[in-house]
Amino acid sequence: MVAVGYWQQSGEPVTGMARAIDGDSLRLGGRELRLAGIDAPELHQSCEHDAGVYPCGREARDYLSILLARAPITCTIREQDRYGRGLALCRQGEMDVNAELVREGQAIAYGRFDAEERQARASRRGVWAGRFERPADWRRTHPR
Asked: What are the φ/ψ torsions at residue 142 (nearest 5 degrees)?
């Protein structure tokens, strides 16, 4: 395994068991990483579907938790966000974790994964099954 400090600077991958923090961030190798190219509902965000209001932010986190519990993941960081978190592209075996979250409607595309978002919309998966506020808009109206 590559040391985290070196890995962050070099873009070398790191592999291990990770823990979900919310729907688009995780802890791996002692560091908080943000999944690049996606934006999931915030942890305390709610959405609506035919059955009513539901905690879509918690559902996104829980979905990521289930994925991460299956097997180790390998993440590669090329840059950091404004909070100092590594922006990561992560894989679990052959599965692209970032793309999977968008494909299942647990996150929206943010600069990439547009094809996966079209699939989720067409199939009405996750947040696309009803109405929701885009996470960036929700954050603006619900500052920390």
From this structure: -135, 65
Range of the domain at 63: 4-141
Q: What pairing do the DSSP bridges indicate for beta strands 31-35 and 14-16? A: unpaired
**String of DSSP letters for 123-138:** HT-GGGGSB---HHHH
Domain count, the chain: 1
Q: For residues 127 and 144, give the distance between their C-alpha atoms in angstroms, rounded to a whole number.
A: 23
Distance, CA of 111 to CA of 99 (rounded, Å): 12
- The C-alpha angle with vertex 136 and arms to 131 and 140, in degrees rounded to 5, equals 105
- CATH number (domain holding residue 49): 2.40.50.90
Residue whose token pair is 């547009």: 114
pTM above threshold 0.85: yes
pLDDT tens per residue, range 22-70: 999 999 989 999 999 999 999 999 999 999 999 999 999 999 999 999 9
Task: Tell me the C-alpha distance between 27 and 93, whole Å.
Answer: 18
